[in-house]
Amino acid sequence: MSANKPTGAKKKSVPRKVDWKALEVVHPDAAGIDVGGSEHWVAVSPDRDPDPVRRFGCFTADLREMARWLVDKGVRRVAMPSTGVYWMPVLEILEQPGWEVYLVNAPHTKNVPGRQSDIQECPWLRKLHALGLLHNSFQPTDEIRMAGTLWRHRGNLVAEASSVVQRMQKVLTERNVQLSNGWSDISGVSGRKIIQAILDGARDPGELAALVEPGVKATPEDIVKSLEGNWREELLFVLRQPVEFYQIYQKKIRAGDLQLRKHLQSLGSKLDLQAQPLGPRPKGKRLSRNTPAFDLRTELYRITGIDWS
Length: 309
Prior knowledge:
The structure is a single chain. This protein is an alpha/beta fold. It contains 10 helices and 5 strands. Helix 1 (about 60-70) crosses helix 2 (about 85-95), helix 5 packs antiparallel against helix 9 (about 235-265) and helix 6 packs across helix 9 (about 235-265). It has a 5-stranded mixed sheet with strand order 3-2-1-4-5. The model has no long low-confidence stretch (mean pLDDT about 85). Helix content is about 45%, strand content about 5%.
């Protein structure tokens, strides 16, 4: 008696075989590069060189030697995977001769049936590219890349500054100073004033409470209670250093904002702000404390023609 097959069971997908002989070579002048952290492997068509696969180092001189070899072999287009950040220097060198560089998603190259496990990655990339089976990833212009680099760097600085604030809060909690317990963010104006006063020697809760900015919802009694703590010399030392780090990060963030603004202002306008002014900010959308010091919303609108708020 045969067992019944379970209902709803999924059938295993059988990879389709590819008739490689039936495929037409559309890019005979293609090359493939397997990028890495310490070396790059490059493959050209076997009819271009008796040794079609070569290894190159990662130094700039090595990349230029790679480009010269590819030029000598008549290569006009290159495919390489977007592995980490290792592809970035390679892309910059290979774009200079005016080649078309395909930056491909590495998993996509492994989904094509027919690859043998003992074949190196670069000949496989060259073969797929020559047959027109690879899709190029979106690559922004150099101006947009520069803006993206500056913006990512700014994000890293903001994250590191936030980590420093957490260390400051830990020290205050150890001393039972409830500076952020329901009434203040220690990185706000009031919090920074109070912490600096504590480092300067102030200890009286009433004196510290006088530094609180207007508009705080907590009652004066609760504010005074929250500022009474037990102080130890070593913890004051530990508190002072993250405060200094925070000030350095804020200075670097402001410097980065100036650099980002300068770069954005150098880009061409998509529209005329006088003819098509930017509308008011959407209601209920408040600016973050980490918002750049300049009007980023207007700059992006001028450059792209889109209101990103």
